[in-house]
Specification:
Length: 75
C-alpha cells in the first residue's frame, strides 16, 4: 500500500546517510585489518619466543652448560 503523500526525505539527507554508512564500513574494515595484523604479529612473536607455555618456571635451577671452546692449536 503505497502512500500518495510527498516524499519526506531529501536527496541531501539520503546522500548524508549513504556517506555515513560508507564511512562506518571503511572504519570497520580498517579496524578488522588492524586486529588481524595484531593477531598475526602475536602469533609470530609466540613462534619466535616459544610462547607455547612450555617454558621453564622461574626459580628452578637449570643445569650448567659445558662451554664449547676450541683453542687455536686444535684448529
Amino acid at each position: 500500500m503505497a502512500s500518495s503523500g510527498k516524499k519526506k526525505t531529501t536527496m541531501a539527507k539520503v546522500n548524508r546517510e549513504r556517506n555515513l554508512r560508507e564511512r562506518r564500513l571503511d572504519k570497520q574494515t580498517k579496524k578488522d585489518a588492524r586486529k588481524q595484523a595484531s593477531d598475526h604479529h602475536a602469533q609470530s612473536c609466540d613462534v619466535l619466543t616459544g610462547g607455547d607455555d612450555q617454558s621453564i618456571p622461574a626459580g628452578t635451577r637449570q643445569p650448567a652448560l659445558d662451554p664449547v671452546v676450541q683453542s687455536l692449536a686444535d684448529v
